[in-house]
Amino acid sequence: MENLSFPREFLWGVSTSAFQIEGAVDEGGRGPSIWDTFTKTPGKIANGEHARVAADHYHRYPEDVALMSDLGVGAYRFSFAWPRILPDGKGAPNAEGLAFYDRLIDSVCEAGIAPVATLYHWDTPQPVEDAGGWLVRDTAEWFAEYAAVMGERFADRVKMWIPLNEPMVMSIYGYAIGEYAPGKALLLDAVPTAHHQNLAHGLAVQALRAAGAASIGTANNHSPVWPETGTEPENAAARWLDALLNRLYADPVLLGRYPGELVEHLPAGFADDLPTIAQPLDFYGVNYYEPQGVKAPGPGNPLPFELRPIEGFPMTTNDSPIVPHALRDLLLDFQGRYADRLPPIYLTENGCSFDDRVAEEGGVRDPERIDFLVEHLSAVRAAMDAGVDVRGYFVWSLLDNFEWSKGYAPRFGLVHVDYETLRRTPKDSFAWYRKLVRDD
């Protein structure tokens, strides 16, 4: 039987990201990002879709804050758009961009909701990418300057800070295989982008602390790695993939070292940066969606592993297998792996996409999402019962949004968005989560 009993102080929240919901890409002095460029490239986005309007959160944020207030969550995790603040990635900040986030944050605070701010959710300013992007060390220094601007402006109101969201995705999807912006296909030559993002994280933590930020953590996507068999070649492939997906980001932040499998691919002098990267954190954010299958590489494969699909589980419309118990296993593994180096954990993202439609009577039935939430929260509770210190849970996402290269087809929101009218319709899962949050 599911256990959905959580401590009264447990933090319930929802998450979004700037590029996926804001729209207004040409308004308020915002500069171009790599995703603006990528969406204009033929063949990169499903159905040729773009995010110029998205969910129009830039103009409709009062309505969205009212929805969160009705939901009863204690925290709203959002991201600042780096190109809305620093259109060139550096230099003098854009006053209109700062003013927009002043309005948003003030509105969230007035609703009694804690702002949880992510500085970077993949929308690198295009001029920064033109200068080398995450392949060059300078980007980490520019990011630290950006963090200082944001800390000075918003540390008095933002309750929790996350410098970078899921650097693994930027490194793998953006630079290694090119499915996401900036669309490069460098394979293992993309590993330096992981180090430069890790360094940016450490420098940003320092800058935020200097500005008076109170609670600083991270938000890394983590996936349990499942070998196809228990043979040593399969296990070796699993260890390599685990290093690439998980330990490349968690180990340097929590342990001050990189996994041995990746060291030869890191930039020269990387070890000198490790003390900066391993800044003490107030919390560790885990984003969980699915495990990753792996097998030994076949002939001609330039990588020391080969991906395989996870079969035998229901799937979301984003092609993710739904495996709740893997979340419990992931949290327990983190507890064992990092022990007293692991700060309190927040599930900073967990969610699912389905083909949600507004019914004739006006509601949105999404029983699969409710089941997903019940099962994953039960997995979190089981991990807590086994001793893992989990302090909060954020659903991805508040709103249906632009889902990167897949466009608008995957719907992750607790709230349905009609992309023609921009009408918001809370789904049944919104009502379910509202009851959980308010009754807990």
Automatic annotation (TrEMBL):
- What are the EC numbers? 3.2.1.21
Would the keyword Metal-binding be found if you checked this record's keyword annotation?
no
The UniProt record lists the keyword Hydrolase: yes
Q: Which reaction does it catalyse?
A: Hydrolysis of terminal, non-reducing beta-D-glucosyl residues with release of beta-D-glucose
- Keyword terms of this UniProt record: Carbohydrate metabolism, Cellulose degradation, Glycosidase, Hydrolase, Polysaccharide degradation
* Database matches in Pfam families: Glyco_hydro_1
EC category name: hydrolase
PANTHER family associated with the record: GLYCOSYL HYDROLASE (PTHR10353), LP05116P (PTHR10353:SF36)
Q: Which family does it belong to?
A: Belongs to the glycosyl hydrolase 1 family.
For this entry, the protein name equals Beta-glucosidase
Q: Which organism is it from?
A: Amycolatopsis minnesotensis
